Amino acid sequence: MAVWLFPRRCWLLRYPVAVAHVSSRVTSSFPTFQEKPRSLADLPHVSTMELIYRMVFQGFYNRIHELQVCQSKQQYGPIYRDGLKSVSVSSPKLLEEVLRKDDKFPSRGDMSAWKDYRDMKGFGYGPFTEEGERWYSLRQLLNKRMLHLKSSLQYGGTINEVVRDFTKRIQYLCQCSPTGDRVTDVANELYLFSLESIASILFEARLGCLEKDIPAGTQDFINAITQMFKNNPAVFIAPKWSHNLLPYWRRYIAGWDGIFTFAKGLIDKKLEAIQQCVETSLDVQGEYLTYLLSNTDMSMKDVYGTITELLLAGVDTTSNTLTWTLHQLSRNPEIQNRLYKEVSTFLPADQSPSATEITQIPYLRAVIKEVLRMYPVVPVNGRVVSENSISVGGYQFPKKTPFLFCHYAISHDEDTFPEPFTFKPERWLRDENSLPAAFGSLPFGFGVRSCVGRRIAELEMYMVLVHLIRQYEIKPDPAMGELRALTRTVLIPEQPINLHFVDRRCDNAA
Ligand code: HEM
Q: Where along the chain is heme bound (predicted)?
């Protein structure tokens, strides 16, 4: 069967992706710009059978990012049809071509699986699911209090408080460990941090994720998110008629139920508090949720949809990026040391740095940029360009062609990033003219539909890193071997990561 599906190409798959030559120079059927534009039909394409074989029998279902590298860089070139009716794009130049021709109200494509749940249960759409002019108005509203640098800095105090509790928790976990410095499953701890942090901004309330015992409702919510994301790819890929026949749909719906029940409970509680203030003529105090709730254009069902989507988007993304960061720093002591020195130079010791100070440390920013290049937390993204037919890479595409952006393959392109599998924050420190191509790594997306939480995510990540690095030297677990990534909608570590947090104030820190 393998021979039938991959007549002359299957040898490629025997090489581990991490060491394979990855270069956008592999442009087998890529036309030069002098040629007459070709059409969709001229593109190299993956058959649906091949895709199924790769996903199911070769196990790429969980490693879609690796499949991007195999298919786009080694087999089909930087633009091809991917077996699901989309056009895959995997070079910085082609990505730029598509994004610069994007619609006024960009669309990521079919979100019907997410919409179906909201329609079934009577919830409104949030920034992910909303489209067209309604999406645009919603984004205008959300951007004001979240995306603009000045407005995001106002959350510095809230995040600092959560970070302080997180470092206390790390200290407690270390003390409980047999060696006095070990934290097991760091990803889980960072997940709790990210959830506590984004919830404290959105709901203006603490959830208790960083306490010794996590409240039961919070744990149910965490489990519900995991369940929804785990079943999400199957729901997107499988035809609608199969939903009620196979178990994934039931699990998917149960996951969403848990997510919305939790978010709705917190929103309703806040609303009650606001109503009490109004009834007793007290000033209504608050930040994000209060701002949305007091916006008369938003119905309650839209508030539920919006806050829930913000909450969802703000947890796995930040926590996984932080997990990969600590993993890389533990494996690269010289980089960690440089970061420690720079942080110590920029910030006065033993003082909680302000949000403004923290966003101005070049090496800290470079470390996060490099982590997001190596592990783009959203490894696949897309656009459907509906307004005009467009030409990309010398091919002419009709309106409504769905494009899939292979961000993992793009940010591992050898021509843009020499030694793409090596962690080198210095890449991002050069002067503006010699920085890597702008579209080589776009972890937060591009344009008006890019990540609304970017500023908050950066602030959270910088703050927690500064606190950790000032207090601890982070060392790897010697028992841990190579660590691969899995695609679970976002890019996650394949196995739990344990780390040693050696207190710098003790003599045993190197
Ligand atoms: C490391 C952290 C994060 C990364 C790498 C990240 C990345 C992304 C990416 C790639 C997109 C799609 C952009 C596009 O299509 O062009 C996106 C969208 C989005 N992100 Fe983030 N994100 C992060 C954190 C957050 C946080 C903390 C929040 C919430 C406060 C958030 C909320 C959203 C929302 C609501 C959207 C949809 C925007 C829209 O469609 O209008 N993200 N993010």
A: 451
